[in-house]
Every structure is written in C-alpha cells, then in structure tokens.
User: Fold these one by one.
Assistant:
Number 1:
Amino acid sequence: MKKILFTLLLITGIIQVSNAQGFQLGLLGGADLQKINGESFEKKFAYGYHAGIFANIIASKAISIQPELYYSSATSKVDSSLNGVSANYNTNIKFEYINIAGLLNYSPAEKISIQIGPKYSILSDKNLSIKANANNAIKAGELSVVAGLQVYVASFRIYGRYQIGLSDINNLTNQQKWNSQVIHIGVGWRLF
C-alpha cells in the first residue's frame, strides 16, 4: 500500500511540475550488466534490462534535474553456497527492483550532459531458487550512487551510467557484505 501511495504522489508531483516552464517527460529503457560483490556470488556481470519513465526539470541552460522511476531485472548466480545454505537446486537469483533516481544533469556542451545522483531501489520480487528458507537473504531496499553521460539526438537521449551500491544488501549475517554494481546502457525518448 505504501508503494502505491508513493507512486501516486510521485505521478501527481510530475503532473504539477509539467505546467512549469522547462519541463520534459519521456520513456527510457535499455540493457543492464549487474554484479553482486560478495563471496557467495560469481565474480562476473549478469545481463538484465530496465524500463520506465523520466522527467527533466530544466533550471538553467547548463543544469537540470532528472527524476526517474523504472523497473529493472537481472539474474545473478550463487558461487557454491549462500552463507552456508547448500545450493542443491538452481543457483540463479533473479533481482527485480522498482528504482527511484534523482539525477543532476550538468551540460558542459549543448548535446551532452554529465549525470550524478542518488538512487533508491525497492526489491519488488526476489526469486531465490536455492531453498525456501533463503528467501530472506536479500534486503528489501538499496541505496546507490549513479554517475554517467547522456547524449541528446533530436527527441532521443542515449546514456551510459555506472551505479555502485552503498548499502549492504546481505540480510542473513554480518560476515559478508554484498554490494551491487550495475552498468546501464539505454535510450530515452522525450514525449514532450
């Protein structure tokens, strides 16, 4: 219920701001490469995707704020055990998140923006196929910092970003820290 209320408030805020000068709204989507740092996970990036909406609130010619709301999904593999939980079954862990980002865009040139800002991810579904008692292994939320570059071509924007998790998402023990790394490559389409 809290997630639905927050989403409705966010949409209402976006509609209110849309009446202001210097506002844009659009769709975004692309590919993700995700890796979980920690002894229990494979040390390589896994493929995923993301899709959602963005707004762009223009403060000046060089500065704008770009809030985003998007869904992302990626699958990681457990190395051999998950903090002592035997991997007798499928060792894939599928992470599905609702992401809320607030990026600051700085444009040193007309068609390029450097982006940086925080992102909070809410775990919407965790499919741990190892054992049922391992389903609480991942924390429900994660705070990250995102940095990247965005190039504008007509009503499209092409972006590449790097995200590093600041939160420890290990919910089982304090022995290991699990942090995510994600590389986003995508395209945004400005609707208006």
Number 2:
Amino acid sequence: MTLSYRRLTIHLGPRTLHRLKERLRWVRAAGCVVTDEGGDMLLISRNGRWDLPKGKVEAGETLLQAALRETAEETGIEATPAGCRPLPLVKTYHSYNLYGGWHLKQTTWFAACATGHHPAGRPQGEEGIAAVVWVRPDEWRRRLEHSYGTMRTIVKHMPWTD
C-alpha cells in the first residue's frame, strides 16, 4: 500500500497498515473517474485544487453505490459504471486531523461513464466545490499531477492517459 501526505509518499506493508488502523479512525470512501461519450474526463475544483468526486460510504451502501452517489451529489452528473463487471481501478490512502483526532481514509476508485458529451454539471458549494469541468485526457493528467498525492497515484493507474 502507498500512503501519501503532501509531497511525501510512503509504501506500507499489511502489518503496518493494520497497526495504523488500530491507532487512527478508519474512514471508507469511494469515488469515480468519469469519462463522457467524447472521451473527455471530469474534474472538480475543490478548495482551490483539482480533484475528483468522492465521499464517505454510508451504512448499507456498496463501494460502487457510494462512488456513483457521491459523483451525482458533488457534480450534479449522473454516471454509470464502466464495463460489464465494474472492478475498482485503484485504492488510495491519506490521513488527516479533524475534530481533534487523526483519520486514515481509504478511497476506492471506479471507472464510470456519463451520458452524452459534456453533460452540464452543478458544483456542490457546501463541499467546497467551485467548478465542474470536462477536459481532454492529457489536460486531466496535467492538472491532477499538480494536485494531491492521491490524485497522482490515480493518474499513474489510468492506462488511457498514457
């Protein structure tokens, strides 16, 4: 497993991950890498950085259901899983201090498709999202490579962005 914090990336083994889970509040989240019919890719601008839609898994939800729900909530764009058997693309991990305690967030990422070419989005302002944009894959990669460490991990795992 790889844990990113700011510009520091640490590779962790299963035992170390287990020990971290015992000491930190464990948060499960899911998100989508969304492509439209024209091959453009979805980005959001959250708190001044380029990001992808994601959020916490609610009780009774699967990871895929959470990823699609969060995408719709944060962007106003409905998406469907890519492929006949949607499998996670990659999992990312990051830690943060919130409400007086450290959390370790595991986000599972899925490929998804939006219907149409550039469906209109609606940024969820209460989540700090200022913009929802569609960009070509090379621009998607460029913007995310200059964002959070977890976003760079996702870029590395996307075969269609090479």
Number 3:
Amino acid sequence: MRLWIRAAAMAVVMAILICSSASAETLRGDQLLIMLDDESSSGVQANVNRCRAMGYIQGLLDSYTVFSTRDPSLKVFCMPEQGVSSAQARILIVKWLKEHPERLHEQARLLVFHALAEAFPCKKSTAGDKDGQSEQIVVPRQN
C-alpha cells in the first residue's frame, strides 16, 4: 500500500513539473494551435502540450483579471457570470485560430484576447441604452 501511495505522489509531482515548465520565447498563434489541437503526437505528448497551452492561457487570463480589475478601461472582454471552463475556453480558442489562419504568425497572447473579445463582448451600459448594445472592443494587432 505504501509503495502505491509513493508512486501516486511521484506521478502527481511529475505532472505538475511537466505542466508548469515555461519558455521565455514568445509563443505564436500557430504554435499555440498545435499545442491545443495536437493529433499527431502520442497520447502522453499531446496531453503535455495541451497542459502547457492551457497553463499559458490561464496565466493570460489571471493577468488580465488583475489588470482589468484595477483599471476597468483595460477591459477587452467580459466573461459570463457563471464563468467558462478550461475545456470551453480551449474549444473556443481552437475554433477561432482555425477560422483565422492568416493571423497565426502573430503573438498567441493577442490572438487569445481577440478570440475572447469576439466570444464575450462587453455590454455598454448607458442611461439611454436599455438593451445593452455591445461596445466596440479594439485589441491591438501585431504588425
């Protein structure tokens, strides 16, 4: 029984180390798409790639939350009150990247924000606006 517990603990530690490894280079959209939607690698490698990509996206979302909470003028998208699961975010971002292949050379972080801004636009709330028309969101494009 003790051996099984040690093996399980070691597996958890290894998974955390693999999923938390980061790279200093700038990730491009094509690289993120491969990591999120990799069907060519073995099951283990595909899972590692997906885990790394989702960690990258979660880091972007965490940073965005901090900065947009401190300065609401930085809000680019507005998540639904019930939130979005990691699986939903992955599906949404993969779909957007596949629909915009001409932009895959751009920085992944910008493309993630474009995908989320398109999926979850913020509602403009003014006194004369009863139906909450969507506000135009502008995300800078990399040249």
